[in-house]
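Database export, one record per block. Field names are fixed; values are copied verbatim from the stored entry.
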Amino acid sequence: MADVSRRSRPRVVDLSALWAGPLSAHLLWLAGAEIIKVESRTRPDGMRSATQFYALLNQGKSSVAVDLGDHNDRLALRALIATADIVIEASRPRALAQLGFDAAEIVAMTPGLVWITITGHGATDEPANWVGFGDDCSVAAGLSGALREVTGSTGFVGDGIGDPLTGIVAANAAWHAWQSGLGGRIGIALSDVVAHCLAQCREREPELLRQQLLDWAASVGRPFPSVARRHVGSVSAMGEHTQAVLGPVATC
């Protein structure tokens, strides 16, 4: 059972993959959290194929691999979640339900647990079943429309910008909820985050937003200037810590 008083730093169980969720866990790691990354043995994080980017987002995390089709592995994962202070997942509701995980019930039974649910378009009604990635969620949020208003051109803005924005928002929400000691489930949708950021820019810095959209349109097809950040922590092999992490949990 999560108890913020028993640890000086939160234990985070990262069930997410690709970009937004792993980034939020990475930012929590930078803030001092313990991160346990959990992957399916049959469907590992697709970002592993992008070696350097994967290393940047997942450095310093312990790696646990489970067979989600195996009853005992699901029990072990449920027991691990019960020891967490923060859980990060980016699954559509039906995916959790198929595994027998009821996030609302788990949070209600685990005082102080913070559960971050990242989706493309929300976790209720029809949009809950929609697949969402950074690019298309940004379009849905109106970012491509803003580009057309300013430049007359249509296209994506940023490189999957919904993912890094959502990762930052999720990490901030998780950390503050953990510090409060109240816990709870927090839903964060990529399209909502981008829409909020766009609205804030329009309200507070409309000319800066206009110039950034012009700059982006002018840069399409050319390398965009960036500063590469190297990973400094170790990167675990998939499943490297499965026995060390799940062994003690299974005997609790």
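Remark 1: The first strand starts at residue 11 and ends at 14.
Remark 2: The chain has a mean pLDDT of 91.
End of record.
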